[in-house]
Amino acid sequence: MKANLLINKFFLIVWLIGIAGCTSVEKSPFTKKLPDHPRLLLLNGEEAALRQTIVSDSIWQRTGSFIISESDKIISEQPVERIVTGRRLLAISRESLRRIFYLSYSWRMTSENQYIERAEKELLAISAFTDWNPSHFLDVAEMTMAASIGYDWLYKDLSDETRKVIKEAIIEKGLKPSLDSINNGWVKASHNWNQVCNAGMTFGAIAVYEDEKELARYIIERAVNSITLPMEDYQPDGAYPEGYGYWGYGTSFNILFLSAMEKVYGKDYGLTINPGFFKTAKYLENMTGPSGNSFNYSDCGAGGGMQPAMFWLASNLNDPSLLWSERNHMMNGNPSNDRILPAAIIWGAGTSINNISPPSENIFVGQGKNPVALMRSSWTDPDAIFVGFKGGSPSVNHGHMDVGSFIMEANGERWAMDAGMQDYNSLETAGVSLWGLAQNSQRWDVFRYNNLIHNTLTINNQHQRVEGYAAITDYSGQSSMINAVSDISTVYKGHLKKSVRGITIVDSRYVMILDELEALSSETLIRWNMLTSAIVKITGSNTVELEKNGKKLILKVIQPAKVTMKTWSTVPTRTYDAQNPGTVMVGFEFILGADSDTPLKVLLLPEGAVENTEISVMNLSQWPGTTLK
Predict the structure, then answer these.
(1) How many CB atoms sit inside 10 A of residue 8's CB?
(2) pLDDT, tens only, 402-457
(3) Of residues 271, 298, 286, the one with CA closest to residue 369
(4) Buried/exposed 316-343: b ≥16 CB within 10 Å, e otherwise
(5) Is the peptide bond prior to 236 cis by the omega test (within 30 degrees of 0)?
(6) In Å, how far are 243, 251, 342, 387, 472 from 364, measured between CA atoms?
(7) Cα 215-217-219 angle, rounded to 5 deg
(8) Which residues, 6 or more positions from 107, have their beta carbon under 8 angstroms from its beta carbon?
(9) Strand duo 496-506 + 406-410: pairing
(10) Which of 160, 259, 261, 532 is deepest in the core (most CB within 10 A)?
(11) Angle value at C-alpha 492, between 489 and 494, nearest 5 degrees
(12) pLDDT per residue over 226-264, tens digit each?
């Protein structure tokens, strides 16, 4: 470790020598004098715009009041303690960020001493920790951001001694550990670690800039060069490979970084010329169904909530309609207790929540590492049909064997669901090697991670191939047949010649899933899976009735003519697997003959929906659509 630290210090010295030789701002863009404290996200005097937004909009007023009421609760609580769970301090870092951001906001908006006094206690408590757990550097990143916001926002009203303690903690427990190669593999990563860690380190560097100019410049320049890697992953259409939950993590911290840079330097050094990054606003907006829950593929939970980062994106794109889902979350209850919630008010200042209009398109298609198609019959009808459909690969970061999987909502209920993630610590403490992505990795033995629990096909009871990849090949927004198609053949390599899946919302009334398969030279067992939390009743040789909260949906198999309708238990057989109460797998099995091709046509019919037989007889080549390259 000492050797690695020495090597990184050597490269830091080399970089500093280069900076020292620079004579122009162009050669060294990070030498300019920064604004006085506070300088992170919200300059001194900019509180007035936030107050005006809150006064003029009842929804923003509720959001601001929520932050202050949460700050009032924090006042009576003891400061956080250094409690490591498994290999993570992350829960403590996140709670510290929430507390310090909320308390600092409340102080700046009210000037009431109780908030700064309580924030100071929290800042001194985390500064006294032995370290911020650099072996799991996300913990350091979030704790550094927490300390930096408090240090910067409260700077002029903290004592000299308190400022000294917090500053030294930011430098010694935050910034300097990031120079050690044992801790900073995230610099070369293209996933959320890069975004979160670079954001945390940059906040620290900006906060202590005048006291550690050379170190701060190095860290800021490193971040500007490094964060381009995960930002490329939004190409070409904005689909975030790691899914909804990790979008809320990686993208939010990426935007915190961009916002901080813009505030102190007045520009982003070309980072936002990436068109895919701005397109991600439409991806995220479309990921929420009428129920308010998300399409939770990969390691994500099904819950949805307001995403503060969307206000920055909508403001930069000058498109308030991107905030339709945020509007609904804000109007239907208290704001999400997101640890960066104050940033939503900063980025959303001047936006009238009540005047946001719905989007004009009912389908979003995004290619990339994990392509998705997101379809709905309406943005304003709470009983609308919503379908999330994905291609991609199990080999993406946080990926599951869910290629070809989908979720479906109708009449306010989610009928086809994704089981989502399992708590990492529960698996790691049981000795599960969770992070391997090879075909034989133990990750794929985890019940919630393989294709047997996802709404896709299972062939010969085997796992999908991790090296496979499926793009969205065709799509259409035609109102009578909103649809998307994906060739998922490569994840069944060695078991099928061809496997192409299309999903369509027919006449805005029901859903059809069509699989076109070609067998190899031997008979093949095909299993069609769908996970549901409904009560399931097999009602015929090709029909199943699903009932949930007094509502019904019929699953009907049109082809093949002879199938075995089945249910499968979701009770896991391994002790380390999470339980899945209130769920069941439903579907069917049949034998695909050697060298034969057979379509699988399945209807999901909400109550009152009538099958359109003209559409039912179509094959995929007859569906309306645009072919994608």
Answers:
(1) 18
(2) 999 999 999 999 999 999 999 999 999 999 999 999 999 999 999 999 999 999 99
(3) 298
(4) beeebbbbbbbbbbbeeeebbebbbbbb
(5) yes
(6) 15, 19, 29, 11, 11
(7) 70
(8) 115, 116, 119, 153, 154, 157
(9) unpaired
(10) 532
(11) 110
(12) 999 999 999 999 999 999 999 999 999 999 999 999 999
Alpha-carbon span 71 to 122, nearest angstrom: 12
Token duo for residue 331: 């109007």
Please name the amino acid found at residue 573: T
- Name the CA radius of gyration of the chain, rounded: 26
d(CA 164, CA 348): 33
Q: How far apart are the first and last CA of the chain?
A: 47
The crossing angle, in degrees rounded to 10, of helices 341-348 and 309-317 is 20
For 605, which DSSP code? E
What CA–CA distances, in Å, run from 251 to 245, 305, 519?
A: 10, 15, 42
Token pair for 84: 């490591």
> Cα angle at 275 between 272 and 278, to 5 degrees?
70
Q: Tell which residue, 155, 145, 163, 158, has the closest CA to residue 36.
A: 155
Q: What is the pLDDT of residue 28?
A: 55
How many Å apart are CA 34 and CA 27, to the nearest integer?
Answer: 17
Q: Are 218 and 12 in contact (CB under 8 A)?
A: yes
- Please, where are the H alpha helices in 227-385? 228-232, 243-246, 252-265, 275-286, 309-317, 324-331, 341-348
Nearest residue to 582 via CA among 387, 302, 382, 375: 302
Exposure of 592 by Cβ count < 10 A (0-12 exposed, 13-18 middle, 19+ buried)? buried
pLDDT at 23: 31
Any idea how long the chain is? 629
In the structure encoding, which two tokens stand for residue 307, read together? Answer: 């995403």
Question: CA 114, CA 497: separation in Å to the nearest integer?
Answer: 68
The side-by-side arrangement of strands in the sheet containing 481-487 is: 535-538, 543-548, 551-559, 597-606, 510-519, 496-506, 481-487, 472-476, 626-627
Strand partners, 515: 501, 600
